[in-house]
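TA notes, week 10

Several of you asked for a full example with nothing omitted. So below is the full record: structure tokens for the whole chain, then the designed sequence directly under it. When grading your own attempts, check the secondary structure regions first.
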């Protein structure tokens, strides 16, 4: 994922009943219509996000170093 102006925006809403159609725009880095959850690891110098699909595999991730 490439930050836009050094800012990362993450929008996730992957739980619930089924997946809905999602839109894209010129600033959209990645999109997928799947049931998923996101977990975050926060350390002293690093933040890591993991998007995990219902089957348990990692769909996407993001690392932000301090």
């Amino acid at each position: 994922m490439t930050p836009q102006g050094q800012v990362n925006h993450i929008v996730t809403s992957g739980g619930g009943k089924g997946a809905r159609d999602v839109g894209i725009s010129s600033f959209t880095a990645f999109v997928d219509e799947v049931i998923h959850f996101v977990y975050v690891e926060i350390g002293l110098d690093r933040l890591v996000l993991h998007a995990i699909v219902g089957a348990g595999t990692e769909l996407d991730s993001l690392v932000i170093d301090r």
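The beta strands are 36-42, 46-53, 58-65. Use that as a sanity check on your answer.
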